[in-house]
TrEMBL record:
PANTHER family: FAD DEPENDENT OXIDOREDUCTASE DOMAIN-CONTAINING PROTEIN, SARCOSINE DEHYDROGENASE-RELATED. Pfam families: DAO. Residues 29-393 form the FAD dependent oxidoreductase domain. Residues 1-20 are annotated as: Disordered. Its EC number is 1.-.-.-. Keywords: Oxidoreductase. This is NAD(P)/FAD-dependent oxidoreductase. It comes from Streptomyces flavalbus. The keyword Zinc-finger does not apply. It is an enzyme of class 1 (oxidoreductase). GO terms for molecular function: oxidoreductase activity.
Amino acid sequence: MSARPAGTPHWDPAELPPQPPLHGVVTADVAVVGAGLAGLACAYHLAERAPGLDVAVVDATRPAAGASGRGTGLLGPRAGPSIDRAVQRFGPRTARRMHQASVRAVEDVLDLCARLDVSCGLRPGAQLVATRSRAGLTSLARQARAYRGLDLDVPVLSPLGVRARVGVPYSAGLLYRTAATLDPAALTCALARACAAKGVRFYGESPLRAVRAGDLVGSELVFPHGRLYAGQTVVAVNSAAQAVGLPVGTVLPLEVYAVATAPVRRTAYEALGGRNGYAVVDAVPMAPYFRTLPDGGLVAGGGTVTVPVGLGTDRLRAARERAWNWLGHWLRTLHPDLHDVSVLHRWSGRIGMTGDGLPVVGPVRGLPDVWYIGGCCGHGLALSVAHGAHVAAALLGEPEPGDPLPWHRSAAPRMPVQGIGRPLLRTALDALGRYTRRTC
């Protein structure tokens, strides 16, 4: 078994519906730009709830080519800042609703897999947030107090409690019961096929160039070789919104990294929770994490993030090599029987980061009938599906029960990431990454 070229994800491409490039003038009732999980979930729910609606999905490349197909498949509850910070910023009631919404988002993905009748490599299993460092222990203690104060079911694990689940000497952990691991590319492609089966049209290799208000209603979307006129539009392009000038605040592109191994020795696989499908995330910032694979291998990610804009090809290539090498080294420290494990896949992906750690899901200011979804800050596997369903309901006029969540908003805070702001941000992230890698 040989390693694939650098940049190739572990996940194999799946069958997709036809996606001709968009040429000429095209119309649709609803245009969805972006064939990741958020855009496809929105198109799926629109087609399911309003069968006669004419829905068109347009992507710059193809479904699953972006972040939705390049993730690591950890399906767990998290939305915005840690629970203790959410309590400080939004109050106990809203913080509790935020956590509950993220748990429902996980349950929605599990339900979606069942409705699509696809396995997507799904392995239900708890997620552990654990630590081996003093800083991580302090962070976990604050979070545990917040969960307890909000009467939320997130148990604290002692060192023995962690070792009973994964054989790594962590000092403590938190147990998230509603979680799973899966193949994110398989889920994205299955969702695309389900959309096509419901009559959704697909266009590929058509990057969005501009969004304009329509002459009378709706919007005009400009692509390299044509235009699409839609009554309603959903732009689910994450940080690429900056390139077309959408006024959604700062959604900063950050590059994150992952590796996958060959099947490991059975002792190591079972010790790291392979039989039960556990995923383990370190509690420190830029947390490294690992999960087991159905084929007996491991996936690891985290530990490093890079601001790719303006970095240059050679420096970006060097940053990737450093990140991948560190992840391989970190994986080998988790169990003695991993000392010679082979890394077969090394890849990276882009996430959208906001200044306050919250996504942006709402109507775009100044562009009637245009909605934006993005900025999940690395926690988009469950949230993206939930956001797509939320926007579909809004477009169909279905009222959202209760008060809006903090990320149901039109824009993120603006961040000074141009000019001197960008190297300062890069320096801060590099310093935080060095601290994380040294601590873990």
